Amino acid sequence: MADETYQDRITFHEPLETMEVDFSGLTFSTNDQVNAFYDVVDTRLEATGRRWYFLIDYTGCVIEPAVWERFAARGKHSNVTYSLGTVRIGATDDTRTTIRERSKEDRFRANLYDNRDEALFAIAEKRKRDEGVEAARVEDFLRVEDVHLHFGGVRALSGVGFSVQPGEIFSIIGPNGAGKTSMLNVISGFYTPSRGEILFDGVDRTKLGPEAVARLGFARTFQNIALFKGMSTLDNIMTGRLLKRRSNFLYDAIYWGPSRRDEIRHREYVENIIDFLEIEAIRKTPVGRLPYGLQKRVELARALAMEPRVLLLDEPMAGMNLEEKQDMVRFILDVNDQWGTTMVLIEHDMGVVMDISNYVVVLDHGEKIAEGTADEVRADPVVIRAYLGQS
User: Fold this and answer.
1) Is 297 part of a structural domain of the chain?
2) What secondary structure does DSSP assign to 45-98, as a single string?
3) Positions in the chain short of pLDDT 50
4) I want to staple 376 with a disulfide (CB 3.0 to 4.6 A). Which of 337, 346, 372, 382 is the partner?
5) Which 3 state secondary structure label does DSSP give 33?
6) Taking the chain, what is the end-to-end CA distance rounded to the nearest angstrom?
7) How far is CA 183 from CA 29, 44, 67, 167, 272, in A?
8) Sign of the dihedral through C-alpha 181, 279, 122, 263
9) 307 neighbors 240 (Cβ within 8 angstroms)
10) Same domain, 243 and 342
11) Taking the model in full, what pTM does it have?
């Protein structure tokens, strides 16, 4: 296969901000073949001097097992360096399985679609969300201003402030006792700050309690799982729909008319979440019988059932093994990508935080000591000393 053939398989669609790569019918059996194709891809991309959405067609493409490592490594480099987001079509069952497994290991979104129209629609939706995020940066979506929180003589938070943009994965990190969960409790309305403000969509909601905050579009998971252990997975997730229900005592009592239709509508929504999080097999199982990692996933499902605009995640991967963490990371990325849900995340696994976060704030002893992108925070000498324990 000559370079000219490869050139013909790379098309830039300027109005869609999309680069389409056609792998259809190709067989990659050596690392040299993989390198030759990706050398052309990267050269073309570098010449544009910008980032693009990627549409990749795998129809009839064969990637031999011996070259998957090189193929994945070159693809990851192109995505990290030049991509605004990637969608994939035409993959065989074996290729789909391999891509999904690697998406868990390398923490990227698989985004597999059945045809080109579905993939282009997904790109269009992502472009709209990305444009909305940029437009909204002029006015903060969620803003924490000079928040102080005291319990008697104990200072939990002191003058903490930051802003979260719509569609971001925003992480709060710090050593034990830094005030991370206290900050999440303030945002969720469980704690009222001693001083300071919480602004959402430009409106002060500092004094609102948990139920009022939830009605604004906030949902959360907890560091220690908070599920009804004797209830099934399905029933636990259905509790996340309570704020969306239209209750009428008489109709509810006889399960008739509007009450029945309302129940069916909410049940359909929950079933879609169950399918999305791949927990169909445990839908009728009491959650107390489930392993820890699946209970965490059920708790995420219940939060998603509230249709949150802001999802607060308090150590969603704490206590999980590697495979369970990979699954949870994949679902967090998929929720953020497909629904554009803004996320505020507390997590101790720094590999996860640095890989998936758009922005990071670091707390220590209740004070903000650093903020910025993952790379900026990772290189901050104050963070290295206070958080990582290095001199």
Assistant:
1) no
2) HHHHTS-EEEEEE-TT-EE-GGGHHHHHHHHHHHHHHHEEEEEEES--HHHHHH
3) 1, 136-138, 249-251, 253, 390-391
4) 372
5) helix
6) 54
7) 52, 46, 46, 20, 32
8) negative
9) no
10) no
11) 0.65
